[in-house]
Structure formats: structure tokens, C-alpha cells
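queue> holo job accepted (pyridoxal-5'-phosphate)
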Amino acid sequence: MSDVYLNGEFLAADQAKVSVFDRGFLLGDGVYEVIPVYADKCFQLSGHLIRLQASLDGVRMKNPHTQNEWTALIEQLVERCGGGDQSVYLQVTRGVAPRDHVFPQNVEPTAFAMSSPLAPIPEKYKIQGAAAIILEDIRWQNCNIKAITLLPNSLLKQQALEAGALEALLIRDGYLTEGAASNAYVVLDGTIYTAPKDEKVLPGITREVVIEIALKNNMPLLEQAVTEQQLKQADEIWISSSTKEVVPITTLDNEAVGTGKPGGVWKEMDALYQQYKQKGAA
Ligand SMILES: Cc1ncc(COP(=O)(O)O)c(C=O)c1O
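queue> job finished
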């Protein structure tokens, strides 16, 4: 069994134990990160650690480690888990205390990390694309914080799965926010649209890479939310996340998106994204 990291120690996963009074367990009082590793090397690590700090600040929680400490322990974890392509999961909770909504005083946060093999992106997504359904965004008002309280996301994702879709695309106040576990993009007349960074969406690290690539390659991109109507008329729809990269959505609510095949703008973006990954831009 692979080792995990818990509060300063590396342990076999079945030896790692957390108290039933941990606020992550009782209240969902914690934040997390998921970081892809390619050929032993973390991709966009500094962006993930900066976002972890922002999530911790957003819930007024102490960071148990400096950036250098996180970097060193992640490197050690990846090595202990066999290297190669992995998916590193980090979680920080407010710690162990008698159950109370109010924050406990003088409690050390619980720091946890694990790593598992990174599943390759299914080839069928690149050839055929994937399906999505439209659902109402039932999440809270602080979606920019990567909180472990994922019950709404889980319900939405399950509904998508039961409808034969990969992802639920979420509508709040008539506008597309993002996916249940991804950022979303719409291509209309050659311009890529993605919702702006605010409390309605997670500031995705993959989204940052997509924007950087678009800017460098003169691909028109606007950080501007589209309406549900525009979403339904899109020439192309994509989703992105650290473990799925950029996936074309070719069916929306059982209707073809554009030609019903992965579009030309996605093809250009995916090729550039693969080059960016190869370069291992940190
Ligand atoms: C709600 C949500 N939005 C966006 C993303 C994409 O973020 P990233 O590219 O940092 O993985 C995720 C990733 O899990 C997510 O859960």
C-alpha cells in the first residue's frame, strides 16, 4: 500500500488515522488541492500552492507548512509512491477540537497528502468529445475557495453521470459559471469565452494555462460569462481541470454542439497545451 503524509510523518495509508473530532470530518472545515505530476515533476506547483494559501486565507485557517516545506514533502511523497505520472491530493483542516461551529483557539491544523497514479485521458474524449448536461448551480457563494465541502458538486456530478454525461455545466442567474469539477469555455464566432475570476468560479490552474496559451498565440479569449442561451448556441464547448486537461464537449443535453465533433479551436488549444506540458512549464 502507498505511503501517505499526515501531520509531519509518512505512513502506510492503512496506518494513517485522524480523530473523529477532526473538524474536516465533523464540519467539512477544510480546503484542498489536486496537483498533476508528469514524469516525476509537479505541473504548475507554485500556482497550486498559491491557490492553497488563498483558500486558507479565505476560510481564515493557518497554513501548516511554508511553500518550501510543501514542495519538499510533495517531492518525497511522489518518490515514495513510485514517481511517473501521479495525482497529488493535499488537504488541510482546521484541526481537532470539541464540536462547535465557532473556531477553536490554539488548535493545530491537520495536514494530509496522498498521491495516486494519474489516469491517462481517455482517447475517446479527443476523438469524439464528451457529453454534458445543463444544471442549476446549487453551490455556495464562495466557489473561489477550494473547500472540501463538495456535497453540491458531488450531487451535480452524480446527476450528470446518471444522464450518461461526463460533466454538469452550471447556470447561476442565467449565466454559465463552470462545471461541477471543471472550468468551462464556450467558443462563439472564433472567440473563446470563460467566466471571469470571481466568487462564482474556482480560479482553475488549468484555466490560467489555457489563458496564457491563448494570449501567446493570438487566439481571441475573453474572461466574460456567457448566457445559457449563448451556451446552447456555442460552436464549441470545452471543460478543463488538472487531471482531465482540456476536454471538448460535443453533446449538450443530448444535442450536438456545433458539428458534434471536437472543434478546430479546441484542436489548436489541445496541441499547444500538450507542447506546454512537454516543456514542463512549472
Ligand atoms: C469546481 C471546479 N472548478 C474548476 C476546477 C479546475 O481547476 P484546476 O484546473 O485547478 O484543476 C475544478 C477542479 O477540480 C473544480 O472542482
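queue> The first strand starts at residue 3 and ends at 6.
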